[in-house]
Amino acid sequence: MSEKPLPLDGNSAAGLLSELFAVEITGASITCDGCHHAAPIGAARLYGGRMGAVFRCAHCENVVVRLVRTPEGYWLEMKGARSLFVQARGD
Amino acid sequence: MSEPPVSRGFRGKQRSSDHAARTPPGQHLVNDFPVLSAGPTPRIDLVKWRFALTDGHNKFAEWDWEQFNALPQTKIKTDIHCVTTWSKLDTEWRGVTFDDLLAAAGLDEAPTPFALMHCYGGYTTNVPVEDMLEGKAMVATRFAGEELDPEHGGPARLVVPHLYFWKSAKWIQRIEFTETDTPGFWEELGYHIYGDPWREQRYAGD
User: Fold this and answer.
1) What are the start-end ranges of the E strands in chain B?
2) Which residue of B32, B186, B204 is in closest CB contact with A51?
3) Is residue A51 scored above 80 in pLDDT?
4) CB 3.0 to 4.6 Å from A31: which of A38, A52, A62, B100, for a disulfide?
5) Those residues with Cβ within 8 angstroms of residue B33's Cβ, 6 or more apart along the chain or in another chain
6) Which class for A31: exposed (0-12), middle (13-18), buried (19 or more C-beta within 10 A)?
7) Cα(B178)–Cα(B129) distance, rounded to whole angstroms?
8) If you average pLDDT over residues B183-194, what whole number do you get?
9) Secondary structure of A12-81 in the HEC alphabet?
10) Residue A3: which of B35, B188, B190 has the nearest Cβ?
11) B74-130: per-residue pLDDT in tens?
12) What is the sign, positive or negative, of the torsion defined by CA atoms of B21, B194, B156, B124?
């Protein structure tokens, strides 16, 4: 089977994201540092296959977040993200 | 399939032990050619395609598609190993060896001990120069006798088969010579700086 990256979106990495983030992160809004477009991280385009999650802005393809799980832990890089907005919980 | 069971069985056994010896630890063999990309496949117009050797200050050489294809061409048959645990035996590539690129650029030797590959689409990966000399690496434009498919890195990709295949950068645009070993796209995010499949150097610290 070929790993076809194109049909996937950020929601496909929801399990991996939830291992690292204690909040429900796929609905968090991320603003791309390249084009300033804001969108839920779950709507980002997902690449990287089994090497890791490479989230690209659905608007301009800029890399906004990268997340790799190794046997030792998690590597997160967000230099392509201008900001991350997480909705406050209702309490 | 109808095959003579005895001779086939005998040949099969020989082949499987040969294949096992060529499969690094933690890898399994595949017959297809899986695709793994860090981004969308760039569609590169051959009229605009360029490939260069540079360092921080100089451009030692730059070739357009026609000039690149006029360089000495070499064919290799080699095994490749992806860090996601698949290996593929006897892959056939044609392209220009790193040695021939240096010679064509008029360089007696590489100006620095390390190199960082830069690709169309923004991907990067680092390889020590020594690991590209003496036929150990090429910039390939053909796979299995055909033009290299864009999904597999066409028009041109690095092939440095003795390292994990993420080092064999797809859609290569430029080889930058660097004084220090500069981590690339995956190497700065937990993957091994060198990536020797026979020592199972998948992640930093392996």
Assistant:
1) 28-29, 50-54, 59-64, 74-81, 86-97, 114-119, 124-128, 138-143, 146-147, 157-159, 172-178
2) B186
3) yes
4) A38
5) A2, B88, B91, B152
6) middle
7) 9
8) 98
9) HHHHHHHHHCCCCCCCCEEEECCCCCEEEHHHCEEECHHHCEEEECCCCCCEEEEEEECCCCEEEECCCE
10) B35
11) 999 999 999 999 999 999 999 999 999 999 999 999 999 999 999 999 999 999 999
12) positive
- Six token digits for residue A39: 């969108």
Mean pLDDT of B29-51: 96
Closest residue in A to B152 (Cα–Cα): A2
Residue B66, SS3 per DSSP: helix
Residues within 8 A of A (CB atoms), B 13-42 only: 32-40
The distance of A38 to chain B (nearest Cα, Å) reads 19
User: Complex ipTM, two decimals?
Assistant: 0.88
Taking only residues 161 to 180 of chain B, the set having a beta carbon closer than 8 angstroms to any beta carbon of chain A reads 166
CATH class of the domain whose range is B26-199: alpha beta
Q: What number of residues does chain A have?
A: 91
Minimum CA–CA partner of B85 in chain A: A50
